[in-house]
Amino acid sequence: MSSDTNQTPGNDEYAVRVRDLGKMYEIYTKPADRLKQYIFGKRRQFFTEFWALQKISFDVHQGETLGIIGRNGAGKTTLLQCIAGTLNPTTGTTETKGRITAMLELGSGFNPEFTGRENVFLNGTVLGISKNEMQSRLESIESFADIGAFFDCPVKTYSKGMYARLAFSILANIDPDVFIVDEALAVGDAIFRHRCMHRINQMKERGVTILYVAHDASSMKRLCDRVVWIEDGSLRMIGEASDVVDAYLEHQFKITSDVSERKPVADSKTQSESIDAERYKPAETKSHNQVNDCSLSSESLFGGHEMTIPAGDYRVGDKRLEVQGIGVYDEHGRQLQSIESGKPIWLRMSFKNNSINDPDAKLQTGWTIRDLQGEPISSTNTGAEGSEVPCPAIGECTTIAWKLSMPMLRGGSYSITMGLSVLDDEGHPQVADRVVNATIIQIHATNQVHGLIRVPVEIEYQTDSSLAGKDA
Q: Fold for domain 286-447?
């Protein structure tokens, strides 16, 4: 296994440098031994040494996203705590450049008696940020957290998801140079997880250095430039994301196979399959009050305008045209929260003309579907589909409906971004209104989907009987 610390993504300037890092904990069998150790000092030892980390060395280069992977208890969080400065190493050193923010333990750094608003300023003080600067960022933090009136309630009343929302919002809105995130997406609803991943991708584009810990192999491969594999407190491998993740999964599969051979399960359905089946169980659908239970697959596509946007992280555009609402429906006109993979859906968007006084104005509308890692799965617009969008009169609304023949996608959470543009004299689209992550839909797969999409196939066999009886 490789442990080369000099594999670089092309940038020689480091943001984080770790050299011969080690962390040892003293394990006492009974409380009295701790007192004896205090009395005798270094003359006698009443504890057992446990090395959570040993001789870890690597560099993280500016603008790089480094993944850290390993089993529970491998030492990943301890490593991040040492880098963040919240834990002193026993041996070795760590160096960082610029402002570093870390989301490690849920709710760490919060005073449970303070409100969310007060904890924003408390965290700013801890990070060395002035009150005036935090005040200028307060609106963005509150909007990103999206916890409503709870922002002014004591955080001791928060759920785990609300803790995560507030913590991530604070750290992601103070322009860090180095951002450390440990399993941030493990807590929170689908909307929050999509919002977090979208912000992480924005940070990558701005050149923020990111240290990312997750157990999701696909997000590691897509998000990270390189990956560090920590095994039993030691650096097992470091290198290209796909190489290290594949090696780690192969190692884990071998361990799992060995355990399965020794301890056969009574039921052929594994625990993980049971969890997935429950997680992606279709939500109960309900009819939208604007469409009067009509079948959207028939000629009665339009039963009214969409007037709500289910999610929406932020919007961009000059608002000459403005999105009023977005809805997702099945072929029977029922509004969807989840759907079986491969089933068709109707995607509807209503928009209002705020200021275009030209009935011949050329409009364009489109959508993008992204997975939980923020990767686009599919995207199109009316221009690409050869369709013209009529321009309503000022103050009036138009609703457009798309019928999507959804592919066999892997089960999980997907976001849909929708937008409107006005074409200029040269045919270039000028964004009027784009709603990022406007709605979230859960896809559940009744059949196994290996990879991202299951491609429909036909299988045929041919047997050549003329070879029968001939010598090989």
A: Coagulation Factor XIII; Chain A, domain 1 (2.70.50)
